[in-house]
Design brief:
5 helices; alpha+beta; VC0467-like; globular; UPF0301 protein HYS17_01885; AlgH-like; 33% strand; single chain; 194 residues
């Protein structure tokens, strides 16, 4: 799967969209998850959970563990758990103003960068204004995400930078659901088809 490949909405792929977990999703790792889809094609999908905080891990601690020195204004920013796959692999999900050769534009002005050099730039104060640091990712094999969508496990919506980057991460699911036009209290924990 090529993360740099951008799909148009008419092709059925969800690159650049948000997945919002439905209450009946059985996997506790994705309870109330909001996932930014970085890649989706016939080979599978890859996304980053943007609202699950890794308890007790902030950006400054991570920089210390990697022996990266510097002073940044968002040093107390929580590190997010991007999903259960490759949980030691880091990603920076960010908006404009910061691009490196390795940065991939996934959606208009939303980028993913995953290099130590990017972390060093952030530590120097040269990083993006709006960013999330994420460890791990969510991955789906060919057809797996499509099957989950047919089972009504996820809602799909456009990627809204205010949902991704602003406010309390623990409130992003409620905000995403409301932006879709649904009252979270009206969602049922059981699935069905009409």
């Amino acid at each position: 799967m090529d993360m740099a490949r951008r799909e148009s909405p008419k092709d059925g792929y969800l690159t650049g969209k948000l997945l919002v977990a439905m209450p009946q999703l059985g996997d506790s790792r994705f309870h109330k998850a909001v996932i930014f889809i970085c890649a989706h094609d016939e080979n599978g999908a890859m996304g980053l959970v943007v609202n699950h905080i890794l308890p007790g891990l902030e950006l400054h601690s991570l920089l210390d563990q990697l022996s990266i020195e510097g002073s940044i204004k968002n040093a107390d920013m929580p590190v997010m758990s991007g999903g259960p796959v490759e949980t030691a692999r880091g990603f920076i999900l960010h908006q404009g103003g910061f691009r490196q050769i390795e940065s991939l534009e996934i959606e208009s002005n939303i980028y993913v960068t995953g290099t130590i050099d990017a972390l060093k730039a952030i530590a120097r104060g040269d990083g993006p204004e709006r960013m999330l640091f994420i460890l791990g990712y969510a991955g789906w094999t060919a057809g797996q995400l499509d099957h989950e969508l047919q089972d009504n496990a996820w809602l799909v919506t456009d990627a809204d930078p205010s949902v991704i980057f602003e406010g309390d991460p623990e409130e992003r699911w409620d905000r995403a659901i409301r932006k879709i036009g649904i009252d979270p209290l009206m969602l049922s924990g059981t699935a069905g088809r009409a």
